[in-house]
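Interim report, section 4.2 (structural modelling).
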Amino acid sequence: MTADIDRLAERVDAAREATEARGETFYPGPSRSRLAMFPPKERWDDWVELDSKAWPRRVEKRFMLVPTTCFNCESACGLLAYIDKDTMQVRKFEGNPESPGSRGRNCAKGPAVLNQITDPDRILHPMRRVGERGGGGWERISWDEALDEVAKRIRMAIVQERQNEVMYHVGRPGEDGFTERVLAAWGVDGHNSHTNVCSSGGRTGFQFWTGIDRPSPDHANARTILLISSHLETGHYFNPHAQRIIEAKANGAKLIVMDVRLSNTATHATEWLAPYPGSEPAILLAIANELVRTGSYDRRYVRRWWNWRQYLAAEHPGRPQTFETFEEVLGQLYADYTFEYASAESGVSVAQIRAVYEAVREAGPRLAVHSWRSAAAGNEGGWQVSRTLFLLSALMGAIAVPGGTYPNAWNKFVARPIHLPHHPAAWNELTYPLEYPIAQNELSFLLPHFVDEGRGVLDVYFTRVYNPVWTNPDGFAWIEMLTDERKVGLHVALTPTWNETAYFADLVLPMGMSSERHDITSYEQYDAQWIAFRQPVLRAARERLGETITDTRQVNPGEVWEENEFWIELSWRIDPDGELGIRQWFESKAEPGTKLSVDEYYGWMFDNSVPGLPERAAREGLTALEYMRRYGSFELARGIGPLHETEVDPAQYATDKAVDPFGRVYARDPAPVPMNLAPTGAPDPDAEGRRAVGVEIDGRVLRGFPTPSGLLEFYSTTLVDWGWGEYAIPTYIPSHVHPSRLEAGQVPLISTFRLVTQIHTRSANSKWLDELAHSNPLWIHPSHAKELGVITGDLVRVTTDIGHFVVKAWVTEGIRPGVVACSHHMGRWRLEGHDHAHRLNSTTVALERDGSRWAMRPRAAHGPFDSADPDTSRIWWTDVGVHQNMTFGVHPDPVSGMHCWHQAVRVSRAEPGDAAGDIAVDTERSRAVYREWLARTRNATVVSPNGERRPRWLIRPLKPTADAFRIGGPVGRR
Amino acid sequence: MTELMAPLPIVVEGDRKPQWAKIIDQTRCIGCHACTTACKSENEVPVGVSRTYVKSVDVGIFPEARRNFQVTRCNQCVDAPCVAACPTTAMYTREDGIVDFDKDRCIGCKACIAACPYDAIFINPEDHSAEKCNFCAQRIDMGLEPACVVVCPVEAIFVGDLNDPTSKVAHTVGREPVQVRRPEKDTKPKLFYRGAHASTLDPIAAERPTGDIFAWAMQAPEDAHHINSGAAPGTGSSSAAAIISYDVAHNVPWDWRVGLYTWTKSIAAGVYTVLAILVLLGAVAADGALWRFGAPVAAGAFLAITGAVLVWDLEHPERFHYVLTKGRWGSWLVKGAVFLSVYALALAVHFGAALFAGDAAPTILRAVTVVGIPFSVLTGVYTAFLFAQAKARDLWQNPLLPPHHVVQSFLTGGAAALAMAVVLEPGAVDALALVVGIAAGANLLMIAGETFLPHPTAHARMAAHELTSGRFARWFRLGVVASVVALVAPFVPALALPAAIVGLLGVWAFEHAYVQAGQSVPLA
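Predicted structure of the assembly:
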C-alpha cells in the first residue's frame, strides 16, 4: 500500500495548470486548451501513464521518453520512443516536440515504426549464402566472419589499385556525410546513389539556376504556393511541408497544384491543373511570358541578380549591352508561349492557366514553388520543369525572402566531422561515365548495362537501404547482373529486412531501423537551420540508467547492428595496422591509436562544429552530446534570409582583386573555413587561379550564388560549354511521351506516384501501413475504359517497350483522359520455395527464364500467416499489386541522366490465361532500349571544353582529385 | 504495474461541468491516415478493426473532380444509443460527456454495434469485447491531448470543452458552419465536422466501385459479420458522380443466430399464449395432456433452445449472467431476460402443478395464466423493441414491428400446438388450424405493411430492397410463400398439419431475411 502511494505520487498531471505550477515545460497542442501535447520534458526520465489496454482500470505504467528520428522518408521527423521501464522495450512512438521541422507531429509512418522494429520477419543475424546466388539457401554466420570476409576483399582491391571495384550503392541515405567519408578514407570513388531514379531531374533545373540543387520553399509565409508535386502527401518533406502549406492556406494563400492525376494534394488545390504529361514547362513559360509582357515582374531584382549581361554578350553581342535591351529580348524570347499555345500543349484551359498567372502575379515575392520528382522525374527534358518553374521565382524576386523559395543549402546545416579524409584519386566510370558529363548524379540505374558492356566489374558491391531489383527500371537486367559471379564478386546487402535485392546477395547484414542506429541529418523545411540526431533509443535509455553501452548490438534485437559502428570496425579490419593510411580516419582523437567510438564521433561534432549547441546544452547542465541524446534536435538559427545579398568581408578580396566583365569578383585571399558543409556548387577559380569570392552588384561585393557567374543563371554557360547550348536558357523540351512521339495506340503511363502511407520498399514491414494501402490498380479515365470495355476491377494488360504487366483497372475521373497511372510501392514479391523472405505484403512468385525472355507469375496470393505476432493471422487482403517497374526499359535523360519514368504503353484487355501480377520481359529488348537512349548523349570526349570529364563546379559526392577529372586519368580498376 | 481506482479530478470551471467535444476540420485534413496508426499504437488495436479511419470519396468529373476525406469514428453522442442499448453498462457516459467503455463488463451481445448509427463500434478479436474511440479518456485524465490530435500533421483534429466559451472547440462550433453525421438519428453528436462533404457524411451517397478494389486497397471481403461500404453501383443517393475511393468493412453485428433465436423464442411464447387463450375459451381441454404437458414442455424446450442460442451468440458466453446481475433496465436485452425468466418460472409452476397437483391442476394452471399469458406475450413481443433499440437500423424502426412479432408468435405457437394436438388432442386441431390460418393472414398483412409501404428513409428503402429483391430475397420469398400455404390450414383439414409446419418454418426464413436485411446498409 505504501508503495502504491509512493507510485501514485509519481504520476503527475500534464495539463497546463499542473505543469506550470511545478515549473515544468508545457507543450501546448492543437486544441489550444489545458491539455498538453507531450509530457513535460523534465519528466522524460520517468513518466507514468495510464495503460490504455486496462482502461478504465487505472493501471500505471512507467516510461522513459527517448527521442530519435524517423527513417521512413527523408523528412527526418522527430520521434519520441516510449520505453517501458519494466520491460525496457519500446511501447510506442510519438512525435518529438523538440523537433523544429516536424514540431511533434507525424504522418502515418511515424507511429508505424513500432511495427517495423517488431516485424516478425526481420533479419536478426548476419546471413551467408549457401548454394547458388539467388537460390534461397542461407546460413547464419558471426559478425566476425562477415567482417573478415568483406575486409579481406576490399583490402585486396585497394592494394591492387582496383579500388573502384568496390561500390556502395545507397537508396535512402538518411544521414549527412558519414558513409561518404568512409569511402573517401578508403580512397574509393565508390559512391552510387539512387538519385537518378528519383530527384536528379528536379535537382538539375535548380542547380543550373542557383548552383544549389534543392529548393526550400517557405510555404508558411507564402501568398501563392505552386507545387508540381504532391507535398501534402509524400516527398521531401511531406509532413513538415504539409503542416506549413495548410497553415498558409488557412491564412488565405492560394495553392496551385500540377499533377496529371488527382492526388490528395490536388484535392486541396485552389487550382488543380492536370496537364498532359511533360507539358508543364509550356504552361510555366506561358505564365512567364505573360509576366514579362505585362511588366509584372520585379525589374530591379532581375537587373541585379540575373546573369543577363552574359546572355547578351554571348547571344546578342552586336546590340547595346543594357538591361533595356535584355528586357526587349526577353519580351520576344517566349512570345510564342501564349496561353493558347500552352493550353493546346497541355489540355489545361486558357482560363485556368490565366488564373494561375494571376495567382503568381498577385503573390509577388511571396511565391513558394516546389518540384522534386513528379514531372521532372517522368519526362525526357524533365529537368526543365524545375528550371522553368524557378524562372517564375526569379522573375518575381521570390528567392530567399519570406514566402519565397530558398536555395536549400541556406536552410540546411551539415556539421564538420571529427575527421575529413582526402578525396579519391581515381574516377569511377561506372558511376560517372563519359557519355553523361553534366549528369546531376550517378548513372546508377544503368549499372547492369555498363557491366554487361564490359566497362568494369564489381568486386565488392554494397547495397544499403536500396532495392534496385525492385525499385529500378529493368529489374531483370539487375537479376542477370547480380546472379553472374563474374560481374559481381561479393554482394553485401546492408538491410533490416529481406527484399528483392537481398535475395540475390552473398552476405545479408542486418542493420537497425529508425530507433536502432546513429545518424545526423538536417533538412530544409522552413527558413532556418537545424540538425536532428537519430539514435538507438534503448542504448540511450540504458545509459540514462547508468549502464555503459559500447556497441549498439548490445541493445538491438538479435545481432542487429548499425552502420556507423559497422563501417568503423570494417575499416579497422581493412587496415588493421594503419599501413594503408585508412585506419587514421577511424581513430579516436582523444586517445590516438584506439578505435573511434560513436560517442566521440558525435560528441566531438556537437562540441566543435555546431555553433550555439554547447552553450544551449550548458544552460541545462548537459554536455552537447547529452543534450542531443535527450532532445534529439537543435535549431542553430532561424530567419536565415537572402544570404546572396550579404556583403563579402573586404578582407576576403584584399589580395589581387579582379572583377570579370560580368561582375564576378576573384581574389587570392584564402577562403574562410566553412562551418556549414551543406553541398553547393563550387565555382571555379579564374584563369589566373584566383578564388571566386563574390559578385559586384551596384558597386557592392555580395556573396551571390555558388554558380560560375555568382548570379542566378538564366543563361547557363556550362550548358553551352558542354554541348547543350540549345537548352542554355529555360526551355520547353517536348517529352518522350509527347503525342508527337507516340505511336498509334500508345498512351503515357504515369508510374511514379506515391501513396500517402507507404515509402518505396521500406514500409512494407508495417502491418498497419499495409492494411491501409496494398494494391496499385491502373488509373484509367471512364472514356478510355469504355473504349476498352473494362470496368473497375477488370484485368488489363499494359504493354511497355520491353514487356508487359497485368493489373486491375481503377476507372476514375481523377485522371486526364488518354493517360493512365499506376502507383509504385506495390507488387512486392518473394520467390517460391525460399524460407528466408519477407512475407508481409508480398506475393510468392515463380521466375521463369528462356534466354533473354523472363516471366514472373504469382504462385500464391498474399494472405494470413502464423508468426510471433497474432496480427499476421488476421491479414484479410490478398491483392498486393503488381511490380510494374520490371517492365520498364531504362530511359536516361541525355542531359540530367535522370531516368525518365513515364512509359509509352498500350493498354488492352487481359488475354486468356493472364493473371493479376503477371510480368513478362525480354532483356534483349531492354538492352536495345538502353542503346537507343545512350545514342542521344553527347560524349565528354567530344564536347568537353577542357579535356575533363565533368564541369568541376557541379556538385558531386566524393569529388575526386583534379588529376582524376582528366579524360584518360586514373579510373581505379583493371 | 499498480492498479489504482481513484480517478484524477476533472477540472471544472465555475459550476459548469466540462463537456468534451471534438472537431474534425476536413478543410485541413490531408487524408494521411496518421490518426489511424497513432490510434492503433496508443490503444493497441489489432489488424482488421479500427477505432478511427479515413474514408475517402472521389466526387465530380474530370477536371472538376476532388477527393473528399472523412475521419470516421465514434461521435461521442449526448444521447448515445450504444449506452442505451448496452445491457450491462459496459458502454457508459462519463460526467464529462465522454462515452467510454469497460471491457470487463462486456458480454459481447453486440447490441451497441447494432444501435450505433455511425458504425463506430467493433468487437476486438483479441479480447472479444466491444471497443471504439473513447476520446483517449486515459490521456484526457492525464492532461494529455488524444493521440490522434497529437499526431495530425495539419492540426485538423482538436478537442475541448463545449461549455467553455474560451475554448477553440466552442469558438468553432459557435461560429463556423459545422456539421454532424446523420442528425436525423437524434443522438446529439459531440463530434463536429467542419467542411465535410455530403458525399462522405451520407454513407450511401457515394457508390462503391465495381470489382473488389478501392483506389489503393482491396474492399474488405463480406462475411457473416461484415458488409461492404457505400451504395451498390448504380444506386447511390447522390446525383453527383461520387465513388468511394477508400473505406473499411462495415459491421453486421447479428448473424443468423439472432434470426434463429427470434424464431425459437416466438414458438416458445406462442405455443403457451395460443393454448392458454383456447383453454380459457374452452376450445382446448383444461385437463387435457395438450394443455397440461404439451404447452409447458414445448414452450420450455424452445425457451431453453432460445437461451442456448442467445448465450452462444455472446462473445463472452461465460458472462451471460451479467444480463441479470449487472443488468441495466433500460436495455431491452435485460427486459427480455427478465420476461424470459418470469415466463420460464410460470412454465415451471405450470408443469409442476400438472405433474403433482392432481385434480387441482386445472385450477392452478388457470391461475398461472394470470402471469403466464402476459409474460408469454411479452416474450413474444420484446424482440420488436430490442430491434427498435438498434437505433442505427432504419428497417427496424417500424411501428408495425411489435404487433408483427405477436402475430408471428400466434402463427408459430399455433402451428407447434397443432402438431402436438394431432397426437394429444385431435379435437383441438380445428381450432388451432383456425388460429394458424388467421395468424398467417395477419402475418402476410404485416409483411406487406413493412415492406411495401413507402419507406421513410433511404436506409429503410435500401434495406427493404435487400429484403424483398436483393441478397435476402430468397429467404423473404420463402417466408411469404410459407404463410400463404399456412392460410390453407383451416380450410383443408387433411393438410392442416403440413400447412401449419410450413407456416412455422416460413417464419424462420422470414426472420433470418429480416434480421440480415436490417443490417445490410453500411452506416459509415
